[in-house]
Write a sequence for this structure.
């Protein structure tokens, strides 16, 4: 589970920093209003956050024509600090450096190695390469996300080993929970009720974002790996017709390769083939979309959630089939009509999701994080 917003329970520094991060350029009085903290506390906290290099004042953007002492706006300091995000996928591993807004600055993609030792070595060297592009940026924390159960890896151990290799605290999280947290962060914290984020790429599953009082949590609730999709595709569980074996990126790419439509099992080749006019490639992609749409209806009917957001390249990368997903959902759902939307991230989702996890500790103690990272950076560079 990820707590993505602590609301009133968080420290003042976390509340002020969180609001400034989301709001862009913001006046102090708006920070007071949004956080519910006193003017004195907000002023003192802004001074501390500015001193730590986490936010900066923008006197050039002061309110023109305001009566009395002009209010000096503040905004997030985009340079200076950053986080490392790692997505350890079943097939591909993505490593990135992001700023404190969660914007991915540099990233690289690699084949996932077979052993954990090799994976740690690969991630360390990829992170060193990315850090060398901007050596003055102090890395404050890192996040590692993965489909842990299908990799058969203990998330806490991987987090600890990567922490030793990277020299910062590494927070591990499930990759679907992380994708939901990244989307939810952009949707705004104010949304009430329950949102189901359904994810499809090489794995298929869902996570739920829910508000409890003024705290928002994202929970990974289920994998749809062996959900019966009604096809004849053989699954690694020795049954037939399981959802991932029918509709994952890997499954449809392998099917297209076996039919001779593409020369290697890469789903991007299948998109290209469809765009180049192959009717069979288009049919495979539309059929996959219908299978996913029916699974979306099942999840929605089971949860009776208030909103559904579809995330992951299996839903977002091939725009012409979005209509088939929605039509199949509408035909299959038994409950009243519901708006189903697509997530905002495409090919960068894994990097953005891992960075969102790396940023979670900022919701607890941003000043402590920076203090420890600067101390660690000195020790790290002198060893
Ligand atoms: Zn199965």
């Amino acid at each position: 589970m990820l707590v993505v917003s602590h609301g009133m329970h968080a420290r003042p520094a976390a509340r002020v920093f969180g609001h400034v991060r989301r709001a862009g350029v913001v006046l102090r009085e708006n920070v007071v209003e949004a956080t519910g903290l006193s003017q004195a506390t907000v002023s003192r906290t802004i001074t501390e956050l500015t001193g730590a290099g986490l936010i900066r004042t923008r006197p050039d953007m002061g309110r023109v024509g305001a009566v009395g002492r002009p209010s000096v706006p503040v905004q997030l300091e985009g340079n200076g600090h950053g986080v490392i995000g790692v997505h350890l996928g079943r097939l591909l591993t993505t490593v990135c450096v992001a700023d404190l807004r969660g914007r991915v600055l540099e990233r690289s993609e690699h084949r996932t190695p077979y052993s954990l030792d090799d994976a740690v070595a690969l991630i360390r060297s990829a992170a060193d390469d990315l850090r060398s592009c901007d050596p003055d940026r102090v890395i404050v924390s890192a996040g590692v996300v993965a489909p842990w159960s299908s990799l058969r890896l203990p998330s806490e151990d991987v987090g600890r080993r990567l922490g030793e290799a990277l020299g910062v605290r590494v927070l591990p999280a499930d990759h679907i929970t992380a994708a939901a947290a990244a989307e939810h962060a952009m949707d705004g914290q104010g949304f009430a009720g329950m949102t189901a984020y359904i994810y499809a790429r090489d794995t298929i599953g869902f996570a739920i974002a829910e508000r409890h009082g003024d705290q928002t949590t994202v929970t990974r609730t289920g994998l749809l790996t062996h959900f019966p999709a009604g096809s004849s595709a053989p699954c690694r569980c020795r049954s037939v017709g399981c959802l991932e074996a029918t509709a994952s990126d890997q499954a449809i790419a392998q099917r297209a390769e076996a039919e001779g439509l593409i020369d290697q099992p890469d789903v991007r080749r299948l998109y290209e083939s469809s765009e180049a006019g192959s009717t069979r490639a288009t049919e495979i992609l539309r059929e996959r979309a219908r299978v996913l749409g029916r699974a979306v209806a099942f999840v929605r009917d089971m949860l009776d959630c208030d909103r559904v957001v579809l995330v992951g390249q299996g839903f977002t990368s091939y725009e012409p089939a979005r209509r088939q997903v929605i039509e199949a959902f509408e035909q299959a759902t038994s409950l009243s009509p519901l708006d189903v939307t697509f997530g905002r991230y495409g090919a960068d989702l894994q990097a953005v999701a891992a960075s969102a996890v790396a940023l979670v500790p900022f919701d607890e103690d941003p000043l402590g994080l920076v203090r420890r990272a600067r101390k660690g950076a000195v020790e790290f560079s002198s060893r």
